[in-house]
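Obj: model holo form, ligand = zinc ion.
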Amino acid sequence: MEPLDNLVNVLKKFPGLGIKSARRIAYYLMRQDDSELERIGSLVAGLKKGLHTCSKCGNISLKDPCNICQDPLRDKDTLCIVEDVEALSVFEQAGIYNGLYHVLGKLSGDDLTEESAEFLRQHIDEMKPEEAIIATNPRAEGDIAYYTLTDILQECGVSKITRLAYGLPLGGSIEFADRLTLHMALEGRRRVT
Ligand SMILES: [Zn+2]
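Output (holo structure tokens):
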């Protein structure tokens, strides 16, 4: 059955899915009626419509600047630097942080791209945070992105630079941390300058 095989081939590329799960999902979809399939299809098709990258922080949002950057109740003196929008959403869902964010985007190897570094400098110049929290994914050795970030933050005159405490899995990803681990990492952040 070609359409089914085609769908399985697409689904098995999804993060965390292998061929077995892909097949299970494909057969689940086969059992749905046409209107439900159309609804799912249009949700996927419309997923990126109307979304912008926030010109201040790099978050993805329907508005530019994003809701977080525009929220008057946010602490404008603290900036949490994350690698991607998924990490930002993990902090948000945990409800443990009330400052602003900066999303670095895709690293080049283990380092920031020049555009990403420039975008961060702009954000810092405009915001002038008292504290910058480095919340990039911990890497076991040679954490180049971390050193680059520290250099940029120092050059931009941020006086207090902190880093999440470990307790987060090394080589792992912030996206997979549970709420408690993430909370402890945030609370136990240490000052690096
Ligand atoms: Zn924003």
